[in-house]
């Protein structure tokens, strides 16, 4: 019967093609990044490049559906839907001042590249999350492990 290799480490299953975002990125910037790179989440890094948070499509959708005290939810969806239209044919909608830092998850789950993959899977299950950021000793991102990366660790 096939089984999961128990000697796999985070470094063995992580994706290394990271797309990181700035905490000052706008909701429109974030939506564009997710679409352009075909990703559903990204580490948020400070000016020095250290991880300070994580943001996902779920966070973005939740933020847009909640709106703010002075901006109705429908307005945020309009801002996002207008992003790909030809500027000459569309009405310019001013973007609300909502940045990634307003709705990112601070202090996300981070692991070193040497953590066993089984331990990463256990942490993700227990915390009910779908991604873990792999960092070096100074919190610089070097990879990310998603639920799909873990499933890919199973033999064919």
Compute the number of strand runs. Answer: 6
Proportion of residues in β-strands:
15-25%
Q: What is the CA-CA span between the terminal residues?
A: 11 Å
Radius of gyration: 18 Å
The main pleated sheet reads as: 3 strands, antiparallel
Annotated CATH topology: CBS-domain
Total number of domains: 1
Q: Can you tell me the CATH superfamily?
A: CBS-domain
Helix content: 25-40%
Q: Name the structural class.
A: alpha+beta
Topology:
Layout: H1 10-13, H2 27-37, E1 41-45, E2 51-56, H3 57-66, H4 73-81, E3 105-106, E4 110-111, H5 117-127, E5 131-135, E6 141-146, H6 147-152
Parallel strand pairs: 4-5
Antiparallel strand pairs: 1-2, 2-3, 5-6
Helix pairs in contact: 3-4
């Amino acid at each position: 019967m096939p089984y999961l290799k128990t000697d796999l480490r985070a470094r063995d299953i992580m994706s290394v093609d990271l797309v990181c975002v700035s905490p000052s990125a706008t909701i429109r910037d974030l939506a564009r990044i997710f679409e352009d790179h075909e990703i559903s989440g990204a580490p948020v890094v400070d000016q020095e490049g250290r991880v300070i948070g994580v943001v996902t499509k779920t966070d973005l959708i939740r933020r847009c559906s909640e709106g703010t005290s002075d901006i109705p939810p429908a307005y945020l969806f309009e801002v996002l839907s207008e992003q790909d239209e030809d500027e000459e044919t569309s009405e310019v909608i001013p973007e609300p001042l909502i940045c990634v830092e307003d709705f990112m998850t601070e202090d996300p789950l981070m692991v070193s590249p040497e953590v066993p993959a089984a331990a990463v899977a256990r942490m993700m299950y227990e915390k009910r999350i779908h991604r873990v950021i792999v960092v070096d000793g100074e919190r610089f991102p070097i990879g990310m492990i998603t639920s799909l990366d873990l499933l890919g660790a199973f033999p064919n």
